[in-house]
Amino acid sequence: MGLGLGVMRTIEFLLLIIAILSAPVLSDLILSKVERRIDLTSQIARIASTIKAENDGSSSVSEILLSIPEVQAKNLAYLTAKLVEGKGKAKTSGVALAVEPANPKGMPPALSFYTMILPKPLANGDSVTLDVLAAFTHSLRPFPEKITQADIQLVVFQDTAHYLSPYPVKVQSLTLKLPDARIESYTKLENTKGLGSEIKYGPYENLPPFSYSPVAIHFEANQAFAVARELVREIEISHWGNVQVTEHYDIVHGGAMSKGEFSRLDYQSKPQIRGASAFKHLVAKLPPRAHSIYYRDAIGNISTSHVRGDSKKTEILIEPRYPLFGGWKTAFTIGYGLPLQDFVFESEGKRFLNFSFGSPMHDLVTDSITLKVWLIDA
């Protein structure tokens, strides 16, 4: 199944190209080298960029701008930046930089901007290397949008082969890592190479500011597309030495919608063929000393779960009562206890709770989360 022109060139991306052609240029900085790596092995698109920036202006620079197309920025889930220290094999990510939304004058609304604040100004002729990590949800679009129980799931991912930046780029490259070597089609440009489950674009040299070259990749992706439409986390803090956590999940398979009849017999006899696009379990990584773990739904306790742990984590494998195909839903609750001293500490006469905000489920996309904290009297 090929990738049609209508999929490759959506209206949103056409509007983006038109908008960036009229964007003003910021010329104080030059990006001498940019290496981007996009990991598409799960439903979450993770983009890691190593950026070397040089100050070619007459005055010092205290911040560096990142630009993200608005069609992608609306699904931005995570964004961090760190200084790279050392050289060659001794390179390591060091100081974390503050990253804040920005609104530079004269820029088109089709682009969202973020500023990375440097720990000290970058003088004329100096350079700095940064590691930037961004994660995006809902970036893989099922195509076709509906499939049968026997079909594999195919998705489309769109981006740009050129690093979209308000600064000129001397040399840059892009590598995409896919979950499988089965690739239906992908945009072929100059210096494009496909090898197994990887596609490489570049290197490209001497790119002007806001250079943009759209690409689309159509590939097989049967990994779990588990989406929590709503998650309610309740944390009860007791002075008796326990923290009780209760998590209520409303889950949907966010991949290609299932069509036609479902045969449990076919699924049980050939799950890898008659259920390749379904997901059968979720994995939650809980704190290492989690105890009194339970898993239930509206019917009652569910026994199809397995717990294992070590000194660093407690892992629970959760199996719903039935496999989930595209569009299918389920709701359940997990609960567990934690030692109070691991998460509550005292400083200057005040008590503080140190607890992760998001879900402990691996590669779960959470659309809506509510966190409730209850203080239980002794």
From TrEMBL:
Q: Where in the cell is it found?
A: Endoplasmic reticulum membrane
Q: Name one GO biological process term.
A: protein N-linked glycosylation via asparagine
Task: Provide this UniProt record's keywords sorted from A to Z.
Answer: Endoplasmic reticulum, Membrane, Signal, Transmembrane, Transmembrane helix
For this protein, the record's Pfam families field holds: Ribophorin_I
* Listed pathway(s): Protein modification; protein glycosylation
Which cellular component terms (GO) are annotated to the entry?
A: oligosaccharyltransferase complex
Q: How does it sit in the membrane?
A: Single-pass type I membrane protein
Function of this protein? Answer: Subunit of the oligosaccharyl transferase (OST) complex that catalyzes the initial transfer of a defined glycan (Glc(3)Man(9)GlcNAc(2) in eukaryotes) from the lipid carrier dolichol-pyrophosphate to an asparagine residue within an Asn-X-Ser/Thr consensus motif in nascent polypeptide chains, the first step in protein N-glycosylation. N-glycosylation occurs cotranslationally and the complex associates with the Sec61 complex at the channel-forming translocon complex that mediates protein translocation across the endoplasmic reticulum (ER). All subunits are required for a maximal enzyme activity.
Similarity comment text for this entry: Belongs to the OST1 family.
Q: How does it assemble?
A: Component of the oligosaccharyltransferase (OST) complex.
* Name of the protein in its database record: Dolichyl-diphosphooligosaccharide--protein glycosyltransferase subunit 1
Per the UniProt record, the source organism is Linum tenue
